[in-house]
Design brief:
Blueprint (H helix, E strand, L loop, with lengths): L3 H5 L4 H14 L5 E2 L11 H12 L12 H15 L8 E4 L2 H12 L5 E5 L5 H8 L3 E5 L11 H6 L5 E7 L11 H13 L3 E5 L20 H6 E6 L12 E4 L2 H12 L7 H12 L3 H22 L14 E2 L14 H12 L1 E2 L1 E2 L9 E4 L4 H16 L2
Parallel strand pairs: 1-10, 3-4, 3-5, 5-6, 6-7
Antiparallel strand pairs: 2-8, 7-8, 9-12, 11-12
The structure holds pyridoxal-5'-phosphate.
Length: 390
């Protein structure tokens, strides 16, 4: 009954782990869930209040397909203030989450057989979304020793005649890597030489540590602005994963096509959630700063604690809320790879985490620290015990 396309589709492995952990929890098993990709904090109160107000005011009908003007303006103005690049509202599309914006991009950009460069390790949805649009993902290796930074020379070697686009995600899920201006410029140079469209997933840009600040590749000059689609949203920075508001900033031609696609599929993102997202951008940023301080403390704890475990090698991530320890030393007779290790830890330690294989990097595990510090401490203790028992 199913289409070829549907049969080829693999459900998100990170969401699969999450639902498995939740199922165990429902059975009464005390599982610590470090598999999730969402902040454990509640959506800030002033944002929830804006949504309540929207409902009270009857702001509950269809809005323009690509989002209300006030939100588009707030998105463009925020980007202008932070990155110094101007976008008009016609160059902004609001979608049902950043994931939806990404989906729309691949659908309107790719012809059958077009190739998209995706650095490893990658966020799980990129290859699937590319394939759904008839494209072919081309994976570009990076080196752990270089912090998984994409090397311009390696990128160049993977560019064939059918390559159309490059996906960048910084700060990265799963590694936490980000790029400074010089590293970004080196990559951008190669992309420009080959006329690539750059899909720049910047959903974690607000979650950077150690005083680092985010540089968008779209800010490196007018040529790059013309070739880049910036993707972002409120899910991660404002603890708003369930509200489903994300967006894209890019060339008008692309945004227009994405809006048309949206008009024939989802229509507008939820009216109430758009008002909440507007408040997130325009309102006080103190809750974000508080969340960031807490993430930072957890990050430091977790890296140090994991490095004390035999077989774990973990570097300090620069952003997002994941650590990505190298666990290859544990593989061999007992575990064939990250999937078996993750399964063992779920069953034996009752800690849910994501095998690196899901991100194209089997030598690793991904642990989210969007969980209370006390829980992280319990999780590490349990992992240590489970490793001693095997
Ligand atoms: C969470 C995440 C997204 C999707 O965010 P939504 O706005 O909730 O759809 C996109 N890209 C990466 C890398 C993510 O981790």
């Amino acid at each position: 009954m199913l289409s070829e396309r549907a049969r080829r589709l693999r459900p998100s492995p990170t969401l699969a782990i999450d639902s498995r952990a939740k199922a165990l929890k429902a059975q009464g098993v005390d599982v610590i869930n470090l598999g999730v990709g969402e902040p454990d904090f509640d959506t800030p109160e002033h944002i929830k209040e804006a949504a309540r107000r929207a409902i009270r005011d009857g702001f509950t009908k269809y809005t323009p397909v690509g989002g209300i003007l006030a939100l588009k303006e707030a998105i463009a103005e925020t980007f202008q203030a932070e990155q110094g690049v101007h976008y008009t509202p016609q160059q902004v599309l609001v979608s049902c989450g950043a994931k939806h914006s990404l989906y729309n991009i691949f659908q309107v950009l790719l012809q059958e057989g077009d190739e998209v460069l995706i650095p490893i390790p990658y966020w799980v949805s990129y290859p699937e979304q590319v394939a759904l649009a008839g494209g072919r993902p081309v994976f570009v290796p990076t080196a752990r020793e270089e912090g998984f930074r994409l090397e311009p020379q390696v990128l160049r070697e993977h560019i064939g005649p059918r390559v159309k686009a490059l996906v960048l995600n910084y700060p990265s899920n799963p590694t936490g890597l980000t790029y400074d201006r010089a590293a970004l410029e080196a990559v951008a140079q190669v992309a420009l030489e080959h006329g690539l469209v750059i899909i720049s997933d910047e959903i974690y840009e607000k979650l950077l540590y150690d005083g680092l600040s985010h540089v968008s590749i779209a800010s490196l000059g007018p040529e790059l602005r013309e070739k880049t689609v910036v993707v972002n949203g409120v899910s991660k920075a404002y603890a708003m994963t369930g509200w489903r508001i994300g967006w894209a900033l890019g060339p008008e031609e692309l945004i227009k096509a994405m809006t048309a696609l949206q008009s024939q599929s989802t229509s507008n993102p939820t009216s109430i959630a758009q008002v909440a997202a507007l408040e997130a951008l325009r309102g006080p940023q103190e809750p974000l700063q508080q969340m960031l301080r807490e993430f930072d403390a957890r990050r430091r704890y977790l890296v140090e604690a994991l490095n004390a475990l035999e077989g774990f090698r973990c570097s300090l991530p620069q952003g997002a809320f994941y650590v990505f320890p190298h666990t290859q030393a544990l593989y061999g007779e007992r575990f064939s790879g990250s999937e078996e290790l993750a399964l063992y830890l779920l069953e034996q330690a009752r800690v849910a985490l994501v095998p690196g294989a899901a991100f194209g990097a089997d030598g690793h595990l991904r642990l989210s620290y969007a969980t209370a510090l006390e829980e992280l401490k319990r999780a590490v203790q349990r992992i240590a015990e489970a490793l001693r028992a095997c």
